[in-house]
Each structure stands twice: as structure tokens, then as C-alpha cells.
Design brief:
Radius of gyration: 26 Å
Largest sheet: 9 strands, mixed
Structural class: alpha/beta
CATH architecture of the largest domain: 3-Layer(aba) Sandwich
Number of strands: 15
Number of domains: 2
CATH topology of the largest domain: Rossmann fold
Helix content: 25-40%
Strand content: 15-25%
Number of helices: 13
Length: 389
């Protein structure tokens, strides 16, 4: 026996003539999230989608669907024909199952007649079915503001009944807004930044900078694990792992130590940008937040941005660390991010990094470096790892 899951979307309703494009992206993402669940169908129902899947995997399917950006909520539903006797029977049975599972003393009816050809309007159905429920369960009473059981009935080409509403991820369908390249470290911030931009409809690829032997294979595996945690939300992710040891050693040997972090960030931005251009991404994404570290002051961000030729999105820019950590816990990246494996941003760190850098001074220091050669060799050494749902 199959289960029907009713799916609701939000912002897509506002897209006018472009709405079919966004609906198509959302349907593709729904199907991708359920690709190994078994026989699954997805049907469009005028402001709703209806997923049919095997009953034994319905809980798993709903867990996956709750992470699909673009969906604001979902409900497991009972389906019956447009016959009032059948509706009454299913309503009584559904309330009975809910009472057995969770108990309750109050209920309310929430009927919606999407098909205006049905003889009863919404208010008439509320009154009629409310009376049927009270006859079947006289111990219940009606509470319109804070009911223990909220019985929904939607009349469409068929009738859908449900008592449970599960919150969705919200946002826009991944891929509907283009592609961005996420500068992914092993820390707390950058995975959250990638998640936030995926929520706004961007598909995400990642670039990670690895400084072997200063950073270990365990540090790289930590980043792989972060990608695995992001894929249920963001879909498939291609991670570009760029060798960064030569660049960091060159900066350390030839530039003032207080400038190390800034010059390093400028190299990262250039490599990420070339990787983005090569792979069809139109923007960069970083986990920077104003004032969090020395490289994230207004002056430092200005110096870093100087090498950028494309938009740089910083979705965490106004969040504090506690807010970022709360999101990381919600999306299940926090415990991985705090594992004590070093990343390239924590090595060669100066005791007193510049917080108010001067761009001309940074440019003079960079003249000592073979920028084009260093960036070119890093690009040639990139390894690509793919992660799927």
C-alpha cells in the first residue's frame, strides 16, 4: 500500500509567468531526494504537489522532503473519493488513529474546497464534519484557537485528509538561481554560508585549500564529511581540493608576517574565482562575518575584494557566532566542524595580524611573489571529489 504526502510551497506562488520554471526545478529536486526510495510519483495539484511512495518508507521520505528547499510544509494524507459518506468514514478513522497515538481533548475542522464544483462549501463542510466527529467521539470538544487535533480536509479532484503538518525547509528550489562556488574550510561558518545560499536557490560547488603536510588527510576527510552533511539540503556537491602548500610557504618566506593572512586570502579568492569561471559558477560564497577575526574587518574585506571579478556573497556578514552555531547544529554540521583537525587558515598564523591594512602596501608585498605561476600550479593540482544525496 502506498502513502500520499501533500507538499506545500511558498515563494514560488509569487513568480507569475516564471512560475512553471521554478515548479520544474522543485519537482526535479523532490525526485532527486527520493531517488532510491522505491516507486515514487510526483503530481502537481494547483499550489500543491502530491508525492506517492511505498508506505514502509514514508517516514524516511518525509524526513528527506523536509530538507528540500522550496517546500514550506508537508503532510501525510489519506485519500478518498468525493463522496460525503466516504469522507465522513475516513475523518472518523483518522481522528481515532490520532487519539490512539497522541491522545487529546479538543479538535477543530479546517476544510478547504479547492474545487468549487463540490456541493458543500468550506464552512458547510466544517460544520457537518465537526458534528460527525462529535457524534463519534463525544469526549472531544471544539477549540478553534488551540486544538489538540486539527483535522484538515482538502477537496480537489480527490479528497485529502490529514492531521499532521511537518515544517519544511522554505526558501527557493536549489538550482533556480544559478550556481555559486563556496570557499569551504573545515570550520563552523562556511558550511552554514553554503546552506544559506542554497536556500536562496543557488546550486553549490565547493573549493577547499589543502596544505599537506601541514594539514593532514584527516583534515581533508573532515571537509568531505561536511559535504556529506550538506547534500541532503543542497543536492549533489562537487568539491575542488586545491593544493595550497607552495603558496603559503612562499608568502611566509617573502612577505611581512603580519600580512600573511590577507595575502593568503587574496590567493584563495583568485583560485576560487578561476575555479568558478571554469565550472560555470557566477559568484563566490564565503563564511565571513564582520569583525569575527582580523581578516574580516571592513578594511580587510576591502583588500580581499580587490582581486574579485565576480560577486562575493557573505550571507553570515551580520550574524554573531552564537547565531551561526545555532544554524550549524540545526543542519548537523556543528559536531563535524568542531573536530580538532587543523586547516590551512590556522597554520602560519601571525601573532599580530593586520586589522587595518593598506591596499598599496599589500600590493607592494605581492610583487615579490610569482602570483601567476603560484595560482596556475595550484589550479593544475586541483582534485575533484563528488558527493551525492
Amino acid at each position: 500500500m502506498d502513502t500520499v504526502i501533500l507538499l506545500r510551497y511558498g515563494e514560488i506562488h509569487l513568480k507569475g509567468l516564471n512560475r512553471p520554471f521554478f515548479e520544474g526545478c522543485l519537482v526535479d529536486n523532490i525526485k532527486a531526494s527520493l531517488n532510491d526510495i522505491g516507486p515514487v510519483t510526483v503530481k502537481n495539484g494547483r499550489g500543491r504537489f502530491f508525492v506517492t511512495c511505498p508506505q514502509e518508507r514514508a517516514e524516511e521520505a518525509m524526513g528527506r522532503l523536509s530538507r528540500v528547499f522550496g517546500l514550506i510544509s508537508l503532510s501525510p494524507a489519506i485519500v478518498c473519493e468525493r463522496d460525503m459518506a466516504a469522507i465522513e468514514k475516513q475523518a472518523v478513522a483518522l481522528v481515532g488513529k490520532r487519539l490512539e497515538r497522541a491522545g487529546g481533548k479538543t479538535f477543530r475542522m479546517s476544510c478547504r474546497r479547492a474545487d468549487k464544483q463540490f456541493p458543500m462549501d468550506s464552512m458547510e463542510m466544517n460544520r457537518h464534519l465537526g458534528g460527525v466527529i462529535l457524534d463519534a467521539y463525544p469526549e472531544l470538544s471544539v477549540d478553534l484557537s488551540n486544538a489538540d487535533i486539527d483535522l484538515h480536509v482538502e477537496v480537489r479532484e480527490q479528497v485529502y485528509l490529514y492531521t499532521e503538518t511537518i515544517q519544511g525547509a522554505g526558501g527557493m528550489p536549489v538550482g533556480s538561481g544559478g550556481k555559486a562556488m563556496l570557499m569551504l574550510s573545515g570550520g563552523i561558518d562556511s558550511p552554514v554560508a553554503g546552506w544559506m545560499m542554497a536556500k536562496r536557490g543557488l546550486s553549490i560547488e565547493g573549493v577547499h585549500f589543502h596544505s599537506f603536510p601541514y594539514t593532514s588527510e584527516r583534515a581533508k576527510e573532515k571537509v568531505y564529511e561536511l559535504c556529506r552533511h550538506l547534500t541532503p539540503w543542497c543536492g549533489s556537491i562537487r568539491l575542488h581540493v586545491a593544493p595550497f602548500t607552495e603558496i603559503q610557504e612562499s608568502i611566509y618566506q617573502q612577505c611581512p608576517h603580519e600580512e600573511l593572512v590577507l595575502i593568503m586570502r587574496r590567493f584563495m579568492m583568485q583560485i576560487a574565482q578561476r575555479t568558478a569561471e571554469t565550472n560555470g559558477a557566477g559568484a563566490l560564497v564565503t563564511g565571513e562575518s564582520v569583525g569575527q577575526v582580523a581578516s574580516q574587518t571592513l578594511e580587510s574585506l576591502t583588500v580581499t575584494n580587490d582581486v574579485a571579478r565576480m560577486p562575493v556573497f557573505r550571507p553570515l556578514i551580520g550574524l554573531d557566532k552564537v547565531e551561526i552555531m545555532d544554524i550549524a547544529r540545526r543542519i548537523d554540521t556543528y559536531e563535524t566542524s568542531i573536530q580538532p583537525y587543523e586547516d590551512c587558515c590556522t597554520i602560519f598564523t601571525p601573532k599580530h595580524p593586520l586589522t587595518r591594512p593598506n591596499l598599496d602596501r599589500i600590493l607592494r608585498s605581492e610583487k615579490k611573489l610569482d602570483i601567476e605561476g603560484l595560482v596556475g600550479r595550484a589550479m593544475e593540482g586541483i582534485e575533484v571529489v563528488e558527493f551525492t544525496r
